[in-house]
Amino acid sequence: MYQRILLAVDGSRSSDLALSQAITVAKATGAEVEAIFIADNSDLFFDVGYFDPSKIMDSIMAAGNEALSAAAARLAAEGVRHSTRLIDKPVGPGMISDTIIQEAVRWDADLLVLGTHGRRGVKRLVMGSVAEGVLHKSGKPVLLIRSEAPD
Description:
Elements: E1 4-8, H1 13-29, E2 32-38, H2 44-47, H3 53-77, E3 82-87, H4 96-107, E4 111-115, H5 123-127, H6 130-137, E5 142-145
Parallel strand pairs: 1-2, 1-4, 2-3, 4-5
Domain UspA: 1-146
Keywords: Cytoplasm
Family: Belongs to the universal stress protein A family.
């Protein structure tokens, strides 16, 4: 059964629900969970005009650390072995799904868990969803968790 669960978090409602499911599976199988947050600023080029990239990236990193801290606290409270990783260098701009797949291979995950509606902005309309990309590209089982309503 599953022994290494890779959980992608982004602080969204769907991500919280994915965390709950990862906890359920981990407790049932004795699996370890690695929670990851991918700091990607490529949406900025679609969402804003003028900006200071360093301040925006600092904000993204802070949000990532907050999401990972919250996930770690819940995993610890449930007695689930876990680690967290903030990935600040995606495979390429906007290549979140590829980065998740790369991390799953690197960490030797045997299950990937993520929400279907994250915090990705208008770029999703142009590039497609992260969840779809992971589902189509992964050679490993993927558990997608859908929230009742997008964030």
